[in-house]
Amino acid sequence: xxxxxxxxxxxxxxxxxFSMENFIVFLMVVSNFLIFTILLLFLLVAITRTKxxxxxxxxxxxxxxxxFNDILKNHKKYTDQEIVTKxxxxxxxxxxxxxxxxxxxxxxxxxxxxxxxxxxARVFNLLSLNTYVNNKTNHIKSSEVYKAIxxxxxxxxxxxxxNVLPHVHSxxxxxxxxxxxxxxxxxxxxxxNFFNTIDGDISRWDFIELMNSLEKLKEKGTLRSxxxxxxxxxxxxxxxxxxxxxxxxxxxxxxxxxLEKALDKDEDIRIAAIEALGALKIEEVETMxxxxxxKETIECQKAIIKSIKNFNTGKSLDFLEKVYNNTYQxxxxxxxxxxxxxxxxxxRNLFEKLKQTSNHSKLSILKHVETPLIKxxxxx
Length: 380
Description:
mainly alpha, 19 helices
């Protein structure tokens, strides 16, 4: 140690003899060397720590997997104390690593074996994993909060939404969205009021998450009619989502609301409503849609054609022939041709008739539509 100190002192006195330019270069070299050394030490510590964690995880994982498999399958055989004792014998010491490994295994088993929420919740609470996750929901780091809420969602063991409720108004957008979706699933008595709390647009990812949440409620048998929330909602993005969800979940009782929205001033709302009417096969609106076709925007016209295809009544064959011949926009013409091709029994006859045309552009569209290898025929 003394030799290192003397070396540094000697370097200092030598540096004092340098010119200003050389002294600055000397300082830069020394400082860069020190920074590099410090970063290298940090890297070595990180690598060592990662290897230690991987080694401990590799040792714990098989034992905990066997333990949880046994407990979750045969939980009635064990008392609460026996479960706790067996767990403590495996982990030896309660630590973040042990808890994280335990939670990961429980998530894997929940997804692969579909254990009931009651069984999962019992084991989760007995092993104090609930306390660990609850503490994470109050963590200063946003990433930890997000992970904690995600764990509750994956295991489906919310405690009446109390864990996530403080975060439904978080300033962090991602946490706020995650917390609201989580609360939506966990608090079924008031979950649908969630739609009244959304104050922005629903992104594509939000749409998927919300639809998955509704699917879970349907599986539980607790999915209610979405009509009341559609009728009173003023958020355009939420309105469009609810309309699409009504069509997706076949909620025929909301037919009148969909008819009202099909005449809305907003184009996006009309499109969603027209497509939902088609999804529900509300055939009595077919005439209304064809009568309004010429007044509509191109996107709404596409929605009308799509719904007519879903109705498949055969009543609009003349209408389809007329709009096909009078339409010059390539994409909508392709959509009409596709509808004619699969429209009732008479549609194929009309399709063959249209193929007699000498117009090369029209003929290429028709050949495109009848090619069996092309899956997405509406996008010629």
